[in-house]
Structures are given as structure tokens and as C-alpha cells.
Design goal:
Oligomer: single chain
Number of strands: 0
Distance between the termini: 39 Å
Strand content: under 5%
Helix content: over 70%
Length: about 475
């Protein structure tokens, strides 16, 4: 009898019915605002540090390799632990993990803001990324499990908008905080500001966020977790640190480990599901068409977006010598375009379905080509005004792609697997952002000495336009109507 129950609990994800044993508690407006605030803070911190790196280097004598770790350590820990965070939420309770993640994010943000040395800042950033990995999967999982129908569609659309806008606002706000030098804190303000908002998030969650969990919790998939961690670390660490360290032997050896770890992870997960166990990332989850096609779009979209924001921050501050504030102002049209199209997104999606993503990727490509033309015409004459048309159109396109993407990927994931599906999606998002920074950022920095910053920027933008074309093609494979 026990064996029959065990096998009944491990039906493949794609055929699992929605649970009737998990109590359904509606997510109120206050609850939605609370979980969105919990998502906003970690996403903001992924890029807010970009504008602070020169000041951190000056104050802590960090050096290029350590500065790379300050930026990359957060993203690596965030990406590596996201799926595990989603699984723990399914098992232990999503509100419980959300509150714990928000509290941990407050503590680690405080540690970042008070770090006396570059080494302690790196350690604090890594732990901050781990806290974010506990927090973020619970947001999407709570939305998926505690909403339905039109409410869920709107909530996922808003989440997509928050995710995209937070990346842009991170660099705008970071520049303003550094220039303001609040109470003489300098760059430390970008971390210290998180503390009261993270505490507020945890307090509001106690009152407004409903508890939910999977009715069929399973043990942590240790082999899958270890192999996924090894695969992501062996890819991200050398790509993010190899250039700054001069591409030593260890960086090449780690890269050589990646394909073996990735293949091993896939094989272990397949074997576990066939044996009636619930692996870290069930292959049957990826057989859901919306999940598979949506993740296919997420990789080039977030990868190009992450690289674009990183390269732009370097160009504006180090190439054009703009102040942190003016660098932030240059990004305002991008944020305005993203936010505007995100607001219109849910209504457009209801009328035109996935064609909105197709149109958004076309707009994104048009905006990127406009930026390439502007850069090549007069790089030294670039200003907030000359960049405005390309930035605005690019932002409009980004919003029409990023906003509905979360709705597509999670639309058919059963509520009892909400944490698992959310963890996979969040991992794809953060891994792609980190990979974009590592690859496009490294390419840009490597080519700048020989090509000059203007031509290196134009090349990165050309690659981004190819990414937009790829997203356009992939979007034609999505179902035209979106529930």
C-alpha cells in the first residue's frame, strides 16, 4: 500500500491535476503589493551595484578582479540556489520562506552596507544573493497558487513589468544615491536603503500574504542540486572572473567541467523521474509547451538585456565620463518606455495574444538599430538627448516582451508545483542576465582597447539586435491565445 501511495505522488508534472487538497486563499491587493515588493528589491540589487563600482574601488582599493566578484558573486549565488529555494517553499510553506528570505535579505544588505573591506563585501554580496534565492521563487509561486483566471494573468503581467523596470531603475537610483551621499554613506547607501524596505516586506507578509505549500512535499534532490550547482558555477565563475584574472588555467579547466556537469544533471533528473521520484527539475515540466517555448525566449531576451545594461553603464560613466546622476538620467527614456508598454501589456495580450511578444521583439530590434546608428554617427557627441529615441523605442519593445513572458511560462504549471515552476523560471531569468553580463560584458571589455569603446558598443548592440530577431522567430511558435 505504501508503494502505491508513493507512485501516486510522483505523477509527471505535465499530467498532474490541480490539487484539491491544497487550500486556496485568494491573494489580496495588499498581498500582491507585498510580494511584488519582495521581488523588486532583489532584482534591483542585481544591477544597482554597476554604477557604484568605481566608488567602491576608490574607497576599498578593490581592484578589477575583486570588483568583478562584487558584481558577479550576488548573481551567481542567486542563480545557483533559485530552484532549491522554490522547492523548499513548496515543502516548508511559501509564506514562511518569503518572510525568512526578506529578513535574511535585510541582514545581508546591512552587512554589505557596513563592509569594512573588499573581501567582506564580496562575502556579504554572495550571502545576499543566497537570501534573494529564498525570497524570489516564493513570489511567483504565491501568485500562481493563490490567484486564478484574469487575476492571475494581471498579477503575472505586473510581475513581468516590475522585473524589467527594476533593472533600469536600479542604475538610475544607484547613481542618484551615490551623488546624494546621504549622511556621508556614499556607495553604502545603495545597500543600506534595502534594510527598512526588506523589514517592511517581512512584516507586511505576516499579515497579508496567504500561506501555501505543495500537498505532496518531497525530499530535496541532493544529486540534482549538486550537479546543477557544479554546472552553473563551472560556467559563471570563469566567464565572470577569467578576464579580470588574465584567463588562468583554472578558468579553462572549470569551463571544461561545464558540459559534463550539465549532461550529468540531465541524465540524473531523467533517471530520478523514471524511478518514481520527484527530481529538482522534472523533465516532464519542460514538456509543457508553454514552459518550454517560454524558457526558449527567456534565454536570449534576458541574456541580451543583462549584457546591454552592463555595457551601457560602463560606456556612460567610463567612456563618456558622465556623472552617476546623468548616467541614470540617460536611462530614464528606457524605463519610461518599458513601464508604459507594460501598463498596456495585459490589455494588448488579451486582444492579440502572443503576437504582442512578436511585435515587442520587432520594436526592440528597431530601437537597437537606432542606437547603433546613433553611436556610429557620433560616439563622442552622445548625450541624453541623442540617445533618447533609441532608448525609448528599445524600452517599449522590452516591455512588450518581458511583461507577458512570465504569464506564458507559468500558465499551465499546476498550483502544487508552483514553487518548482517559479524556481525554474527565476533561474532561467537570473542565469541569462548573469550570462549576458559575463559574455557580452567580457567581449565589450576585451574589444575596447583595440576597437575603441564606440565601435565595441556598436558590436554589442548588433549582437543584441540578433537576439531580438531570435526572440521574434521563437515567439511565432507560441500559442496565439494566452489564458
Amino acid at each position: 500500500m505504501t508503494q502505491q501511495l508513493e507512485h501516486a505522488q510522483v505523477r509527471p508534472i505535465h499530467s498532474a491535476p490541480r490539487s484539491t487538497t491544497e487550500p486556496h486563499h485568494a491573494l489580496s491587493v495588499a498581498g500582491l503589493v507585498t510580494v511584488l515588493l519582495g521581488a523588486f528589491l532583489p532584482m534591483l540589487d542585481f544591477f544597482i551595484v554597476n554604477v557604484a563600482l568605481p566608488t567602491i574601488d576608490h574607497d576599498l582599493a578593490a581592484g578589477p578582479a575583486v570588483l568583478e566578484l562584487v558584481a558577479a558573486g550576488y548573481g551567481i549565488a542567486f542563480a545557483v540556489l533559485l530552484v532549491l529555494g522554490g522547492r523548499l517553499g513548496d515543502s516548508l510553506g511559501r509564506r514562511r520562506l518569503f518572510i525568512a528570505g526578506a529578513a535574511a535579505f535585510a541582514v545581508t544588505s546591512l552587512a554589505c552596507g557596513l563592509a569594512p573591506t573588499a573581501a567582506t563585501l564580496v562575502i556579504a554580496r554572495i550571502t545576499q544573493g543566497a537570501a534573494a534565492a529564498l525570497l524570489v521563487p516564493q513570489v511567483l509561486a504565491t501568485i500562481t497558487s493563490a490567484t486564478s483566471g484574469a487575476q492571475r494573468a494581471r498579477a503575472l503581467s505586473i510581475y513581468g513589468a516590475v522585473g524589467g523596470v527594476s533593472v533600469v531603475i536600479g542604475q538610475v537610483l544607484g547613481g542618484m544615491l551615490i551623488a546624494a551621499d546621504l549622511f556621508g554613506t556614499g556607495w553604502r547607501a545603495i545597500f543600506l536603503l534595502n534594510v527598512p524596505f526588506a523589514v517592511l516586506t517581512a512584516v507586511l507578509a505576516i499579515r497579508y500574504v496567504p500561506e501555501s505549500r505543495s500537498p505532496r512535499p518531497s525530499r530535496v534532490d541532493v544529486p540534482g542540486t549538486v550537479l546543477l550547482t557544479v554546472a552553473l558555477l563551472s560556467l559563471f565563475v570563469p566567464l565572470m572572473e577569467g578576464r579580470a584574472a588574465g584567463w588562468p588555467l583554472w578558468s579553462w579547466l572549470l569551463l571544461a567541467v561545464f558540459p559534463f556537469a550539465a549532461v550529468g544533471f540531465v541524465l540524473v533528473e531523467r533517471r530520478a523521474e523514471r524511478a518514481g521520484l520527484l527530481p529538482l527539475v522534472p523533465p516532464s515540466l519542460l514538456r509543457i509547451p508553454e514552459m518550454r517555448h517560454g524558457l526558449g525566449i527567456a534565454l536570449p531576451y534576458f541574456g541580451c538585456f543583462g549584457g546591454f545594461m552592463f555595457v551601457l553603464a560602463i560606456t556612460l560613466q567610463q567612456g563618456l565620463r558622465l556623472s552617476p546622476v546623468m548616467s541614470g538620467v540617460a536611462l530614464v527614456p528606457l524605463a519610461f518606455g518599458y513601464f508604459s508598454s507594460s501598463l498596456a501589456g495585459p490589455r494588448l495580450i488579451g486582444r492579440f495574444g502572443s503576437r504582442v511578444i512578436t511585435a515587442g521583439s520587432a520594436l526592440q530590434a528597431l530601437g537597437t538599430v537606432t542606437l547603433i546608428t546613433t553611436v556610429l554617427a557620433d560616439y563622442r557627441g552622445l548625450s541624453v538627448l541623442t540617445l533618447l529615441p533609441g532608448m525609448l523605442v528599445t524600452g517599449l519593445g522590452n516591455g512588450l516582451v518581458g511583461t507577458p513572458l512570465f504569464r506564458v511560462v507559468l500558465s499551465k504549471v499546476p498550483s502544487e508545483s508552483a514553487g518548482l515552476g517559479s524556481g525554474v523560471l527565476a533561474t532561467a531569468q537570473q542565469s541569462s542576465l548573469a550570462l549576458g553580463v559575463a559574455t557580452l560584458g567580457t567581449l565589450f571589455l576585451s574589444l575596447t582597447p583595440s576597437l575603441g569603446m564606440g565601435h565595441a558598443l556598436a558590436l554589442v548592440l548588433a549582437i543584441q539586435s540578433l537576439g531580438s530577431v531570435t526572440v521574434l522567430w521563437l515567439s511565432t511558435r507560441l500559442p496565439r491565445t494566452m489564458g
